[in-house]
Write a structure and sequence with these properties.
11 helices
């Protein structure tokens, strides 16, 4: 007897497990990602998944690699003629944009470790920075520092976005609030000026400011201008 084609499911693979986990992540955050829910989404029993993924930690590492891959330029290296510092800045910005677009994605990347499948790509990226004058260890530390900044900033961004739903930042053009703030901070003029400047800038400027500090610092150390 031939099974109804509507009931035939594609074979379960590591890739399908990761894709199902990321779909759950996007829909309900990290708390919604469980082996039970993944198995239900794939129409299999829970123990079947362990043929493909050992545990939740490995699953999160694989999810992290897929999130990086979805940026479209993971481990691609600089474009022809592109300075390495511009490449690092653009790659970090793409990663930040991708992380804040998916609920709890920064938490998935935090503490992840690459699988052997990514080693060749990582070697190529390290080679770009070694050619720029870094030691292999310094090149890896540079990538770690940028990655930690991106993940931390994306985590803060999502936390602030959640808070802003109930407690939005004040409108910088609201003169009544500006007057109240000036009165409350009359003895702290620097703090008042800092808050006024910050509210007038787009929220994205905080990430760009810190990223520029990192990239400009690396460039000053390894590609000083005459």
């Amino acid at each position: 007897m031939i099974a109804d084609s509507a009931t035939v499911r594609a074979p379960v693979s590591r890739e399908s497990v990761v894709q199902a986990a990321l779909a759950l992540l996007a829909d309900g955050g990290l708390e919604s990602v469980s082996f039970r829910r993944i198995a239900k989404a794939l129409g299999v029993s829970g123990p079947t998944l362990y043929w493909h993924v050992e545990n939740k930690r490995q699953l999160m590492d694989l999810m992290a690699e897929e999130l990086v891959r979805r940026t479209g330029s993971a481990y691609a290296g600089p474009a022809h003629g592109q300075p390495w510092w511009d490449w690092l800045r653009a790659d970090a910005q793409r990663m930040f944009d991708a992380l804040i677009a998916t609920r709890d994605a920064p938490r998935v990347l935090a503490g992840n470790r690459p699988s052997p499948d990514a080693f060749t790509d990582i070697e190529r990226v390290l080679g770009v920075l070694v050619d720029a004058g870094m030691t292999p260890g310094d090149a890896q530390q540079a990538l770690f520092a940028i990655g930690a900044y991106v993940i931390g900033s994306a985590t803060e961004w999502q936390a602030e976005a959640d808070r802003a739903m109930a407690q939005p930042l004040p409108d910088p053009s609201d003169e009544h609030l500006n007057t109240l703030r000036a009165g409350a901070l009359g003895g702290q003029p620097l703090l008042l000026q800092a808050m006024t400047e910050r509210l007038a800038r787009p929220h994205s400027s905080s990430f760009a400011f810190g990223l520029d500090l990192l990239i400009d610092g690396l460039r000053a150390r390894y590609a000083p201008q005459s």
